[in-house]
Amino acid sequence: MTDYWHIDTGGGDDTPDGGLMARKHPQQPITNYVNVPSVTKFMAKVEKLGGKICMPKTAVPQMGYFAVCQDTENNMFALWEINMKAK
Questions:
Q1: pTM, full prediction
Q2: pLDDT of res. 1
Q3: Would you say 18 and 34 are in contact if contact means Cβ atoms under 8 Å apart?
Q4: Max CA-CA distance within the chain?
Q5: Helix (H, G, I), strand (E, B) or coil at 44
């Protein structure tokens, strides 16, 4: 089981504003998540602009979807879509 904590920065609602998990190994990089209205649409935009999809759209049940991407300078980032119906 992976240790994972929700982070609340005092946003306007009760949903977590972020999360933190322990590294699996010392070289594991930080991955920043960007909130988007549609992971599917923004995955296409990433590819159109020359980026790569490293982990396809994945559901986090009852929370949303994410995809891990790499930009044209080899930086990793993730897309996050809030969707309480995710399965």
A1: 0.82
A2: 65
A3: no
A4: 36
A5: helix
